[in-house]
Design a protein that fits this description.
By secondary structure, this protein is mainly alpha-helical. The protein is about 75% helix and about 0% strand. The chain has a two-stranded antiparallel sheet.
């Protein structure tokens, strides 16, 4: 493994462990608890897509007339990740994005989708991000998490964006949570089957294939520039801390 990549992974490991072992998972014991968690977590699923599309916009040509941009290998890496995230298959074999799949999981378990639906409606009308969140009544913890992600998006530092995308995202859901979801799905006659599929799909695609693609993308964008690796490491740490704060806030509500 690239020594700079290995150093980054070593430095962020304590924060990743904090997230994977976070006590919020022990507090999710019922479907109502699960719904509370999902109603907050969905905003992290959404801003993940915004970060991904930012990378695609920078690393590939999305203009017309088209012209080649950047490194073909990097273009391939980001385009393959986008393909999987934006047009994967659902549990019935139909094409969908992972965000839409998560919304379907929320509908199935009985979540309140008012905030996330109103928020998406607002931003689709080009209403500014912060105002969209205010109008929709997005909670402060979720709003703060989104704003932190958009600091990275607006940083104009592609190596930082790639690193945060690679190391601060959805593979942080622990196996014990999937086990709980499987058991809850059994107890509720498959009322949590879509979430179960979503988590299993993330493990299968994001946790394995996409992780390797994202590692390679981060390596190429940081190269041998030590300053870039240091910047990437610091921003990944900030991103992980932001998610810990979000998890802390969810746990307080569950308490």
């Amino acid at each position: 493994m690239n020594p700079n990549l290995l150093k980054l992974k070593t430095e962020i490991e304590p924060l990743r462990n904090q997230l994977i072992q976070h006590s919020v998972y022990n507090k999710i014991k019922t479907i109502n608890h699960l719904n509370k968690f999902m109603e907050h977590h969905v905003f992290a699923v959404w801003d993940f897509m915004s970060l991904l599309k930012t990378l695609q916009k920078i690393l590939t040509c999305v203009d017309v007339p088209w012209f080649p941009i950047g490194n073909p290998q990097t273009r391939y890496l980001i385009n393959e990740i986008v393909l999987g995230e934006e047009s994967d298959i659902d549990e019935q074999g139909f094409r969908t994005s992972h965000f839409e799949l998560y919304l379907n999981a929320m509908k199935q378990t009985g979540c309140n989708l008012t905030q996330i639906n109103d928020f998406i409606k607002n931003i689709s009308k080009k209403i500014p991000l912060e105002i969209s969140m205010q109008i929709a009544g997005v909670s402060s913890p979720a709003s703060n998490f989104i704003l932190k992600t958009f600091e990275v998006i607006n940083s104009n530092k592609t190596h930082v964006q790639a690193a945060v995308f690679t190391f601060g995202r959805e593979d942080l859901i622990p196996g014990m949570f999937l086990s709980f979801v499987k058991e809850l799905n059994n107890q509720t006659s498959n009322n949590v089957s879509v979430l179960k599929y979503y988590l299993e799909r993330h493990i299968e695609v994001d946790g394995e294939h996409h992780s390797h693609l994202a590692y390679e993308m981060t390596e190429k964008l940081c190269g041998s520039n030590i300053t870039k690796w240091e910047e990437a490491t610091e921003e990944v740490k900030k991103s992980l801390k932001a998610r810990i704060s979000l998890w802390n806030a969810i746990e307080e509500q569950l308490n």
